[in-house]
Design goal:
With 202 residues, this protein is an alpha+beta fold. Helix content is 11%, strand content 27%. The protein is built from 3 helices and 12 strands. The strands form 3 sheets. Strands 3, 5, 6, 7, 9, 11 and 12 form a 7-stranded antiparallel beta sheet that branches. A 3-stranded antiparallel beta sheet has the order 4-10-8, with no helix packed on it. The chain has a two-stranded antiparallel ribbon with strand order 1-2. The structure holds zinc ion.
């Protein structure tokens, strides 16, 4: 087992060790939450999205992806269609309605390992990433990646500060996440600083 240490750059000692299994079959929940992927770097977790509040993580197809929180599977859609430029941009999709009132959506999956109405726990594998352009179920992609989005309270939420807070071992309430500041184009938000101010760490 490889262990990667994550440290807050303010040197406040909120860093935690994040164990990464060589063979990923689950993510390790922290206070009820788990990252959607094992081994996420801080740069990956805070990367802006190109279009609307969401996150794209470039990685090899076939990477296990996990439920971030306990909930119920609302959508478990395994598409066999090759994207034709019109419908089905998300491709094979899993959507989870979390017990926290947030809806979590995973796109471009190459495998779906849950069923609609199934209960899941934080860290439970829900499928494998995909997104190889032109492959069945990949949807609209330019390369293998996980597209991940969160909605709650009637709005889109930026996943970046939520995922970062989990990696740092101090999960925030996702409904407290902003819906701006995670889209490419403007000045990127310093999510580390945002968490520092939001959480009022000593
Ligand atoms: Zn995307």
């Amino acid at each position: 087992m490889k262990v990667v240490s994550l440290y807050d750059r303010h040197g406040l000692g909120i860093g935690r060790s994040c164990p990464i299994s060589a063979v990923a079959v689950s993510a390790i929940p922290i206070a009820g939450y788990a990252p959607p992927l094992n081994g996420l770097s801080l740069a990956q977790a805070t990367h802006s999205h190109h279009e609307y509040p969401a996150i794209d993580v470039g990685l090899s197809s076939g990477t296990p992806t996990f439920a971030m929180v306990e909930g119920t599977v609302a959508v478990a859609f395994k598409s066999i269609a090759v994207f034709d430029g019109s419908t089905g941009r998300c491709g094979s999709t899993v959507t989870i309605d979390g017990v926290d009132g947030v809806r979590y959506t995973y796109c471009h999956l190459s495998a779906v390992s849950v069923q609609t109405e199934q209960s899941v726990v934080a860290g439970q594998q829900i499928g494998l990433t995909g997104g190889e352009p032109g492959s069945p179920g990949a949807g609209n992609t330019t390369g293998p990646h996980l597209h991940f989005s969160m909605n709650g309270g009637g709005r889109s939420l930026c996943p970046q500060p939520v995922i970062l807070s989990i990696l740092l071992g101090t999960p925030i309430n996702p409904l407290a996440a902003p819906g701006t500041g995670c889209i490419s184009g403007g000045a990127p938000t310093d999510w580390d600083q945002w968490l520092y101010e939001h959480l009022r760490m000593p």
